Amino acid sequence: MILIMKKYINGFFLAALLLGFVACSDDFLTVYPTESQEAGGDATEGAIMANLAASYQILLFDSYANNNYNSIFLMSDLRSDDIFKGGGDAGDQGQLYRLSLLDATPDELPAGLWNIYYSGIARSNNVILACDNAVDVPAERVAEMRSEALFLRAYYTHWLWKFWGNIPYFTDDLPEPYMAPQYSADQIYEFIMEDLDAIIEIGALPMRTSATNDGRASMAAVKMLRARVVMYQKDESRYPQVLADMTEIVTSGVYSLVDFAEIWSREGQFNDESIFEVNHLPGEYGGKTWASGWQGFGTNFPAFISPNDLSDPDGVYKGGWGFGPVRPWVIDIFESGDVRRDASINQWDEDQYVQRFQDTGYFMAKYAARVGYNEPPGDVDLNYENNLRIFRLAEAYLNIAELIVVHGQAAVGVSAEDALAEIRERAGLGPIASTVENIKLERRREFLGEGMRFWDIVRWGDTHLLTENLSEFSSNRTWESYKKYLPIPQSEIDRTEGEFKLVQNPGYN
């Protein structure tokens, strides 16, 4: 809720000033500023950086915060045809079960992301305001920090847009009572594009960040986000631009595909394929606790999706809570010899773990809980250090193939066949024809468990896949077009009033 968010954003801004934002880069992400500024007041470089650190910090809260489990990948994949809800029983995190059945209601849905990402928008706005009031800061530094803030604002807004569509939006420091106008999904799309286009016009970000700046936005990340937003909106007028962006990234020479299995380990963080990832850190930097989820640097996602009470004879993986079991037929989408299968799906024998609700024996592997990845302080299940890989080079290749074959764009230097061949060669497979069916299937194989499948199905118009042959372990699902968006949380509607009264999304009244 915007009203409540405004009350705690200032408190967390102060916490960011005191605690800093820690990651691998000592140059940027360890920030202990001694100064801040009043809203609208003069801003030093240190004050702008403190605001920017606070804005990046929101990336660390989308697995557990505000007393909600909010993994952005899980929230996306639960509505796909790849996984079940799992967990203890149907009532264990019942809002997730309803989400998985495409049956969310205004009173029963995962609502934590609403507050988390609106906090991100507000923090990003603080950075932009500080940049407007910069004092004695070189123009190029202001341009760089402004660009990062615009990227983060667009990133947070795009998730709210994809989940809820018709949402409130604001770019200024909100006056009391801290409420903002609600816009249509098409209007929100334009706001996102304005921010992304502005970053590219400014031209202050490098195509790839240096190692000392791992975790910060790059020009490639901006263009990857622009591609996702344009392709989800199905804005054909922008397809040539997006294809040119993707081609520029893959031919830039600063990124390259790496061994698929190695991407997901600690050693694979910020590898040469990584374009943007969320930098979760070991417990030594300060962990989340059940009593205080709005702090710390770890993620709960690995514990959530790993089998209960697991005994791994190889000592690599450890147990969790058994959510998100992979639907049993998904294993069959992979060809023999495809290295992505075993890197994406763990199969365990019945005597190696405790079976729970909707158990299939298959679990998502990329972000599975690993031994030694969640050392205290903090509560261990909340503080795994598995980085979330948001944008990878593989997506740029597959976007190229899709834009050419599915959407009829003319190649601009990289053919659909070559783009598809690069992905399959890395997977240990030979080339295949670049047909619509093959491109869609390669995308499913490549991004299993990364929160991509549902959004792809919706934008392709293949929503029959969400309801066909999926009744095992659950009630039959139904799909109507209005379910593209979740219902706006009733608690948020109830807290708004007057000209800012939120209107429920169609189909949920």
From TrEMBL:
It is found in: Cell outer membrane. This is Starch-binding associating with outer membrane. PROSITE patterns: PROKAR_LIPOPROTEIN. InterPro entries: SusD-like_N, SusD_RagB_dom, TPR-like_helical_dom_sf. Residues 345-508 form the RagB/SusD domain. Keywords: Cell outer membrane, Membrane, Signal. Residues 1-25 form the signal peptide. GO terms for cellular component: cell outer membrane. Residues 107-227 form the SusD-like N-terminal domain.
